[in-house]
Amino acid sequence: MANAESVVFRKSYHIEGGNFQSAGSVSKKIKQILKQLNIDGEIIWRAMIVAYEAEMNVVLYASEAEVILEISPKKICMIFKDKGPGIPDIPLAMTEGYSTATREMRERGFGAGLGLPNIKKTADNFDIQSTVGSGTQLIIDINIF
Amino acid sequence: MKIINPYEHSITIDEELCVGCVICTLACPAKAIRVKDEKAKLIKSGLCIDCGECLRVCPQNAVKAMTSRESEMQGFTVLAALPSPVLYSQFGEMYSPNDILLALKKIGFDYVYDVAVSVEEVFIALNEYLNRKKNVRPLISNFCPAVARLIIKNYPDLIEHIVQIEVPRELSARAIRKKIAEEQNLEFDDIGVFHITPCAAKMISITNPVGSERSNLDGAIAIRDIYLSLINALKEDGDDEILQRSSGVGISWAKGSASKLGLPNRRTLSINGIKDVVKVLDDVESGKLRDIDYIECSICPGGCVGGPLVIQNKHIAARRVETLIEQYGSKSRLNTEQILKRFEMDFLLTKNLWEAQAPDPLDTDLSRALEMMNKIEEILEILPGKQCGACGAPTCHSLAEDIVKGEAKLNDCVFIRNKELENALKRNN
């Protein structure tokens, strides 16, 4: 048998910005996979918090994004690579309560300024890179062991 | 209480009647059915949540709900009937709930109990329960046996959201059994207590209850099996004993929205139908809906009046329920203080015996499960994605899973087999 540690499951998804009808569907698909893999409920719960927050960020702010899910026996890694306005001041965006959400978004119950800080708090590893006018990339790890 | 259940689930498929058409296979929300050797089978019984969808859609009437037979009612000294409030909605406006309860006595039940009263008790206790359990929101109803199974299998993290108050039918059963034992000086086992139900999952909830050790009921009788004799009994004259004590609050339970009247000062949701139930449980699982106090979930569309074992069209039945609410008032006439006292003494609570059941993981070893997941993706690339069910599995994804688990072959897919045959023909020419 191949080295067990080296087994990786990889799958990519597409998120459409501004589409509230399908919003949340990528996180849901990821959840189903994690459940089928019999991954611990607490880990799934954390993975879902970050996946949903990151997905909603794309829906709210970007025009589209590619999501790459990679699961190994050690960790769940999710990469969200969006095409969008980018974030000019990342430390400010990472401040709890800070939000550029419009009134319309807030009326829908989003934009409390908890998204990015919450992802960072929940993840075991978090990396954010952004180019203004081009897009943002999040790399999020949740450890399994 | 004498029943030992030989079955794990509430449905059986009659192989004589089944033509292997895959309608149930495609309709099953749990993807538990496969057609093998031209017959539908509940192959993945671990996935089944006893929702009764298969029963509802089968054009051959080959899917049967397990309910009590007449023979099972023999051997008891005294018989009691506990009709679901849905029964009150199944007849014309000329018959009141009291007439229907009297009719149950005419057809041979020695005692009847108005379960709608227990519904009202539960909602009075529930209001207090919500005060006590302030830290968990939203709380989720426990009375639909299919929702209970859905949660323990697919949403184990939500078990702590489940209300731990005894369900109305069980409270009624306990009350009537005690009353009869005292009045007639009988042992509990001499008394047969039967639920009259619209629900395909009720029998299994009696034989294999989720969240409690054992049921207080002896069996469940389908409304549609008892309907004809009730209609005949309703036409006869009889005595005018008052058996109905419920108000519109208890009766409103029949259409899956008792929380509107039962918890008037709370933020509640009434969710009916498996698709919406799944959506709302997904939301709760992802931490949403924390501003809601209580969610009442029924797996059947329209609530219990939409159960598979009813006679009346669910919309007409719901209309009848509305009329009954108007007639019997939207306030319970029960003594709240007395009920709260029983609640304080924990008489109305169930023990927390809810256990998660992982439905069907690929493998318990994560490396192996990941390898299998990769194989599933590889197979999905080859499969046509038509979701036709002709292979006997409900979706291409299900077939891919079955193949990886060694339960099916790639050429069970008719499109793949067709290609294989074409290729073979070409080689021969």
Number of helices, counting only DSSP H or I runs of 4 residues or more of chain B: 17
Q: If you average the pLDDT of chain A, what whole number results?
A: 88
Oligomer: heterodimer
Largest sheet, strands/sense/barrel of chain B:
4 strands, parallel
Total DSSP E strands of chain B: 11
Indicate the radius of gyration of chain A in whole angstroms.
15 Å
List SSEs of chain A in N-to-C order: EHHEEHHHEE
Q: For the residues shown, what is the average pLDDT of chain B?
A: 92
Which regions of chain B contain 5 or more consecutive residues with pLDDT less than 50? Answer: 1-6
CATH class of chain A: Alpha Beta
* Strand order in the sheet with the most strands of chain B: 6-5-8-9
Helical/strand content category of chain B: alpha/beta
Largest interface (CB within 8 Å) is between: A-B, 24 and 22 residues
Helix content of chain B: 40-55%
Question: Could you tell me the number of beta strands of chain A?
Answer: 5
CATH topology of chain A: Heat Shock Protein 90
Taken together, the total number of domains of chain B comes to 3
Number of domains of chain A: 1
Strand order, main sheet of chain A: write it out.
1-2-3-5-4
What does this structure look like?
The complex is a heterodimer of chains A (145) and B (429). With 145 residues, chain A is α+β, with helices and mostly antiparallel strands. Chain A has five helices and five strands. In chain A, strands 1-2-3-5-4 form a five-stranded antiparallel beta sheet, covered by helices on one side. In chain A, α2 runs antiparallel to α5 (115-122). With 429 residues, chain B is an alpha/beta fold. Chain B has three domains: 1-66, Alpha-Beta Plaits, CATH 3.30.70.20; 70-344, no CATH class; 364-429, Electron transport complex subunit B, putative Fe-S cluster (3-methyladenine DNA Glycosylase II, Chain A, domain 3). Chain B is globular. Chain B has helices spanning 23-27, 53-57, 70-73, 97-106, 115-132, 145-154, 168-184, 202-207, 223-235, 248-251, 259-262, 274-285, 314-328, 336-344, 366-382, 396-404, 414-428, and strands at residues 11-13, 34-36, 39-41, 63-65, 78-83, 111-112, 139-140, 191-197, 219-222, 268-272, 294-298. In chain B, the strands form four sheets. A four-stranded parallel beta sheet of chain B has the order 6-5-8-9. A three-stranded parallel beta sheet of chain B has the order 7-11-10, with helices on one face. Chain B has a two-stranded antiparallel sheet with strand order 1-4.
